[in-house]
């Protein structure tokens, strides 16, 4: 009989406990909803003030820096020089990345005050570029802009033909010489687009001969073993108004052994030296009176096992026309050669009998490689130096062949 009240009391207690827990949970939920709402229901302005503070906080995190890119996004037929510029207002540039369609990056430099950037060189023609630029304001907040544009397609172009050839080994006197197919009226821009690196490092300077030829050389003959790399970054260079370069090429060559041959027109002898040591002395004949050989330093620019020599091609009338001159090596553009001679009799080492060339004993057809002309031809490479002394003529002009060594270093650089 006494068990029921106790049991009933237990049931009532559980019921009261459940209601208390439900009320507590409801109160917690109500508090959470109120907190998320940002204010009580009794204030109509509370919710509006909360939204305003959030907007102010977002605004305070946005950079005030402004990045500008020219040309505008999507621009076509953009000039290859002077058109690309990146700027920053109310902040400073921290990053500028310009790439072509191949992903190659264009070098450039941000100004000291951080408000501008321009490329270090011209752009290539007919090429799409992308630009990504970032600037920071005084509080370190970043702003960025992205853009793309395409450069012009030129109607008129030029190229440069060059010597020596890529991959060749040449003598110590070989300059890097470029002859352009159009006269250049913007020489600074063209020269800037040609860079030369050497191993070991040596100062190499360019010199213009007229408006269509640019030669590069060091102060003194190259050191044997020097490796030379030339970058012809001419694509997009405006060489003259409306005429653009179209070459983007790398040329590499190596300097071989040091061979310098000295011809004495008075004694009719030539001493061939390698690395300063005489390796052979050869009797020669040079230009006879009235047709004297040039004095000065000359560089072998062409080798021909057999060639025709006609005096009419060098403005000497009908003096000669020899169809099979053997072992010929060109020294000037005007027609001076060192070559085999099978018709001069006993002139070699005794007297001067040529029309300005340097003659060495040979046989018709040049088949005997042991004779002086054959030996000299076989032991010479393009770029070897031949120096003529004591001839009764002026020093050869620096632009007559690859003969810039006849110009002082000071004048060359000027």
From TrEMBL:
GO molecular function: acyltransferase activity; peptidoglycan L,D-transpeptidase activity
Location of region: Disordered: 41-61
Active-site residues, as the UniProt record annotates them: 339 (proton donor/acceptor), 357 (nucleophile)
Superkingdom of source: Bacteria
Position of the signal peptide: none
A Pfam family per the record: Big_10
Domain L,D-TPase catalytic residue range list: 259-389
Keywords: Acyltransferase, Cell membrane, Cell shape, Cell wall biogenesis/degradation, Lipoprotein, Membrane, Palmitate, Peptidoglycan synthesis, Signal, Transferase
Pathway: Glycan biosynthesis; Cell wall biogenesis; peptidoglycan biosynthesis
InterPro entries: Big_10, LD-transpeptidase, LD_TPept_cat_dom, Transpep_catalytic_dom
UniProt key word Lipoprotein: yes
GO cellular component annotations of the record: extracellular region
Gene Ontology BP annotations: cell wall organization; peptidoglycan-protein cross-linking; regulation of cell shape
PANTHER family: L,D-TRANSPEPTIDASE, L,D-TRANSPEPTIDASE YCIB-RELATED
Descriptive protein name: Ig-like domain-containing protein
